Amino acid sequence: MALAKEAAENKDKVFIMNLSAPFIPQFFSKQLEETSPYWDYLLGNETEVAAWAEAQGGDLKGKSVQEIAMHMARLDKVNEGRKRTVVITQGTEPTVVAVQGEEKVREYPVRTIGKEEIYDTNGAGDAFAGGFVAGIVEGKSLEESVDMGQWLARLSIMELGPQFPFPKQTYSKA
Questions:
Q1: Is residue 126 flagged as an active site residue?
Q2: CA 134 and chain centroid, separation
Q3: Catalytic residue (choose from 40, 76, 126, 147)
Q4: Residue 5: what pLDDT?
């Protein structure tokens, strides 16, 4: 919490949270809720946000990924100088992005890949998060940061286990 508070007080620092796995919102919903006012970026997949919505109870249960993302983007935020951005991956379905203060979600189609090229999906979400965060840190646009995440996730599922392919590859826009 100290890191989150420091990021909020020091307006040039960004606080990025990753839901990481469905059990996090299921079993640590109170702790997750305590961090929510500090999220500048929240990353997750469709299963993780569904688990978060279920843990919240009420009207969120059974809502679409888009509706949950919008709700998350609208939660109270300490650092009002930066809009909260919620990024939800959905495997082969478009990546959903909700930005605080915007009326509609954005959807970014994923980079296509043939079924015969997929070896292992373990680590794809972590790879997406790494590529996305790299884009944010480099000052890239939201759209390009999502693309960077999708590019790295695509590379990761073409390998056995979560590893970077050899020879080393360099990001290129879709």
A1: yes
A2: 13
A3: 126
A4: 80
